[in-house]
Amino acid sequence: MEKHKLTIQDTLSLSLFTEQTLFFDIETTGLSVQGCNITEIGAYAFAKNTQLTEIELPASVTKIHDGAFSGATKLNSVNFDSLTALTEIGNNAFSSTALTEVVVPATVKVIGNNAFEGAKVTKVTLSAQIEKIGNYAFFNCTKLTKVYVADTVTTLTIGVYAFGDCEKLTYFGTVANESANPNKAMVSTFTVGANAFDGADLTIA
Questions:
Q1: 58: Cβ–Cβ under 8 A, 6 or more apart, which residues?
Q2: Helix and strand element counts for the chain (H, E)
Q3: Contact, 17 vs 40, CB < 8 A?
Q4: DSSP string covering 74-104, please?
Q5: Cβ of 53: how many Cβ atoms within 10 Å?
Q6: Residue 195 Cα distances to 39, 87, 121, 141, 191, angstroms
Q7: Are 136 and 112 a contacting pair, CB within 8 Å?
Q8: N or C: which end of the chain has fewer CB within 10 A?
Q9: Could you give the CA distance from residue 131 to residue 1 in angstroms, rounded to a whole number?
Q10: What is the structure's pLDDT at 112?
C-alpha cells in the first residue's frame, strides 16, 4: 500500500511530542508539522520508524530530545534551516539515520552525546552559537568529510570520540582557513576530549 505524507496543522494543541508509541509505527514516509505550538520533540517519539524519510518541523521547536529520531534509518531530510528557535539536539537524536548534510541551526548551543552517531552525514556546518559537541556525537559517520565552524566560535568543548572513526574526515575549521590547512583540525582554542578525532584523516592544529 502506498504511504503518504502526513500533515499536522494548527488543530494540534500539544506542546510536546512524547512517548515512543505516539509515532513508533506510523505508516507514512513524511511528516509535516506546521502552525502548531510545539516547542519540543519528545524522547524516542519517532525512534526506529523505518518508513519515515522526511520531516518538516515548526519554527517553534526549541529542543529535540534524546533518541527522537534514532534508528529512523531512511530519514534523509529535516528542515534544519527553518528551526530558528532550536537550542539543543539531544543524545542519540538522529543516530543511525540517512541524513547526508547537516546545517546546524544558528541558535543551537548543544549537540548531545551520540546525536548523529552512525548517520550517513557527508558534511556538517556547525552553528554560530555552538558551545558543546557531546561524546561520540558524530562517531562512526564513515562518510563525513568536512566540518565547518563559524568564524565567531572561539570557545567550544568537543567530547571524547566526538568524531571518532570518521575515516574520511579531512577538515575541521572555518571555511576561510580550509585551503591553507588541508587534513587538519583547527581546534587550538577549543577544549578537545580524548580521541575526539581518532581514526580521522587529519592532524590536530
A1: 33, 34, 35, 36, 38
A2: 0, 18
A3: yes
A4: T--EE-GGG-TT--EE-TTTTTT----EEE-
A5: 19
A6: 35, 26, 20, 15, 12
A7: no
A8: N
A9: 45
A10: 98
